[in-house]
Design goal:
The complex is a heterodimer. By secondary structure, chain A is α+β, with helices and mostly antiparallel strands. Chain A is built from 8 helices and 11 strands. Chain A has 2 domains: 47 residues, no CATH class; 237 residues, no CATH class. Chain B has 2 domains: 96 residues, Rna Polymerase Sigma Factor, Chain: A (Orthogonal Bundle), CATH 1.10.1740; 77 residues, Winged helix-like DNA-binding domain superfamily/Winged helix DNA-binding domain (Arc Repressor Mutant, subunit A, Orthogonal Bundle). Chain B is mainly alpha-helical. The chains are: A alpha+beta, B mainly alpha. Chains A and B meet through helix 1, helix 2, helix 4 and helix 6 of A and helix 2, helix 3, helix 4, helix 5 and helix 6 of B.
């Protein structure tokens, strides 16, 4: 038997085996399943009206800004950059997306307009929900970061937060799943420019009572502990309560519980307000992203 | 279902059209989910989720004639994520009954063929979700490498790599390679 013959037989067997495997599965009753789908399709718009209070959104964005600054300040830890490191995850996420109406509804339901306003956060200070928005500075694309042992040039660290609304839907949605867990719906992607680096991508997820932030950093770091410690030192940012569990590193930063993990060349962070989500719940939120 | 009919139903995307698409594809979608999860209850949930995601995002489907394959990708992605989330063990006890076995009247060649078929079926069940996904798209949906890559949003090279590894595992069951 030639190699070609083997190949053909193999293909035929695979095709036939798959056909049998699929056809031999007895499906559930169609009417019952369709009724469930129909009900959920009808219910969907109402669920999307649940949004978090505006101040929580401000706080979320402030925390995102801090985290992104921190990540941007650790360029020395960046060990690899892939052309498309998250390709496999993208594939899954791309398919779990909100449609245009849902996204519009979600955006309409909030008063926060991050598109035109820079975020301001005082290094070393607690993030106050009402202290994060200052006068519009559209041209601001720099990040001023006080290094360890240095005096901050100003008492503020300013970054420009730009929504990625001009990106095609598929591009935006490729990085982000439609939902985190069962209760948090993708609201919008924010691009935060970093000094001499590509903007970092953050997604805001709206929940019934508060928001979540998901950060995607398209590179890996050698050591997540060093990664987070470097963040704290460089930014004079009160990060504490480090704890490893399995492949996760937990921390608390600026009033937010944080979790960092790496998968497929991407470093991701999920942040949630303290006392609202525990570590186990954070792990549950992170699991589908791996 | 004819491709033109599929396209029309997708363009309408009303309740009646959705029901027609559901009727046409729910068996196969459920089977894909079940073959990954091996739990009927979970597969039902994933099938529902897959149809809902699909109906809500039909505008993203570029080639509407590929609705079935697209739906299978959604279902298999959801099933894969479900497995990761639940860290579930695959329950082989729920495997469907074997079909296509040789009977007493089969020739020796038929019997050997049936034996090989069963070996491949067993190997198919043991594929990872990623490998199962590409195998289904190539051998059940007859999609080209580029079409699979576009559906999965990965490079053609990644698809080829997954197919190669999947075929290696299936071929190993037959000791062909």
């Amino acid at each position: 038997m030639s190699e070609n013959d083997k190949h053909l037989i193999n293909d035929h067997l695979i095709r036939r085996a798959l056909q049998i495997e699929i056809e031999s599965v007895e499906p559930p009753a169609a009417d019952k399943m369709w009724h469930a789908i129909e009900t959920r399709l009808d219910r969907r718009p109402a669920e999307l009206k649940k949004t978090a209070p505006v101040w929580i959104r401000y706080a979320s964005l402030a925390a995102a800004a801090c985290l992104l600054l921190l990540v941007g300040g650790i360029g020395l830890f960046r060990v690899a950059q892939f052309a498309s490191p998250s390709a496999e995850f993208d594939a899954a996420a791309e398919l779990i997306v909100m449609d245009e109406e849902e996204r519009t509804a979600a955006l309409d339901s909030t008063e926060l307009e991050v598109s035109d306003e820079p975020l301001v956060a005082a290094p070393g200070s607690e993030i106050e929900p009402d202290a994060v928005i200052e006068e519009q500075k559209k041209d601001t694309e720099t990040v001023t970061v006080a290094g360890a042992g240095e005096e901050p040039a100003e008492d503020q660290t300013t970054i420009a937060a730009t929504p990625a609304t001009d990106l095609p839907d598929e591009t935006v949605m490729a990085l982000w799943p439609e939902t985190l867990g069962e209760n948090y719906l993708f609201s919008e992607e924010i691009l935060l420019p970093l000094v001499e680096d590509e903007p970092l991508k953050v997604a805001l997820y709206s929940g019934p009572e508060h928001d979540l932030l998901l950060v995607s950093y398209e590179a890996v770091v050698d050591n997540m502990s060093d990664f987070v410690e470097k963040i704290g030192i460089q930014m004079q940012f009160p990060i504490n309560d480090f704890q490893y569990k399995d492949n996760y590193l937990f921390f608390v930063a600026g009033g937010y519980n944080g979790l960092v993990f790496q998968h497929d060349g991407v470093t991701r962070a999920i942040m949630a307000p303290l006392r609202t989500i525990n570590k186990e719940q954070l792990i549950d939120l992170a699991a589908p992203l791996q | 279902m004819e491709p033109q009919q599929i396209v029309k139903l997708i363009e309408y995307n009303d309740n009646e059209s959705q029901r027609a698409l559901f009727e046409a594809y729910y068996r196969r979608t459920f089977a894909v989910a079940f073959n990954i999860l091996r739990k009927r209850e979970s597969a039902e949930d994933i099938t529902q989720d897959a149809f809902i995601k699909a109906f809500q995002n039909l505008h993203q489907l570029k080639d509407k004639t590929k609705f079935g394959a697209w739906l299978a990708v959604i279902a298999s992605n959801l099933a894969r994520n479900h497995l990761k989330r639940e860290k579930k063990v695959i329950y082989t006890a729920e495997l469907p009954e074997v079909q296509g076995q040789a009977d007493n009247n089969d020739t020796e060649a038929d019997a050997l063929h049936s034996l090989d078929l069963e070996r491949v079926r067993k190997a198919v069940r043991e594929l990872s979700p990623d490998h199962y996904q590409v195998i289904v798209l190539q051998f059940f949906d007859d999609l080209k490498i580029e079409e699979i890559a576009e559906l999965l949003k990965v490079s053609p090279g990644t698809v080829k790599s997954r197919l190669f590894r999947a075929r290696q595992k299936l071929a190993a069951a037959l000791e062909l390679e």
